[in-house]
Design a protein that fits this description.
single chain; 189 residues; Protein Binding, DinI Protein, Chain A; 2 domains; two-stranded parallel sheet; 5 helices
Length: 189
Amino acid sequence: MVMLFLYICSIIHKTIKMKKILILLILVATFSSCTEQVKIAYVDVEELMKEYKGTKEAEATMKVKSEKLQKELDSLIGGWQNKARNYQEKSKGLSARVRAEQEQVLMLEQQQINQRQQAVQQEVQTEGQKNLESLSKEINNFVKNYAKEKGYNFVLGTTATNGTVMYGEEKADITDDVLVQLNKSFKAK
């Protein structure tokens, strides 16, 4: 009976010892994973958008398109103004019915010009928004690949007005390097 008691005690002692070893191993594993260095950097998103060649190209394209559309509108407005001036000069000698008809034609044409102007503004705004979304997606994908290549766990984005990064050491700012690499990867369309 005493032997059985000693045997059971030794098994319990070994079990307790194994549990302690298991707990110690878990703690060591947890501690060693916590000591792994996390690499964090940040980029100035406004700077990337402003200085990226793709953004500059998109802006230049939009400027050309806007100028072309503005010339079209100016031409329509100029034509309408000439018609209105001619009407003013000749209106005194016209009958009331003819004056009313010509005024109606001028008002209709002015409404059409206003509608065209609104459509142009909407078109430019929509295209600008699509370009912005496309550029943002392109830059985000580039930064994602850049971070993986350089071994960053996190790359935070910041702007002058949006304090995503309230403070960052200057050495953690990778904006310039990302911008150089981003512009190198840009292929003019």
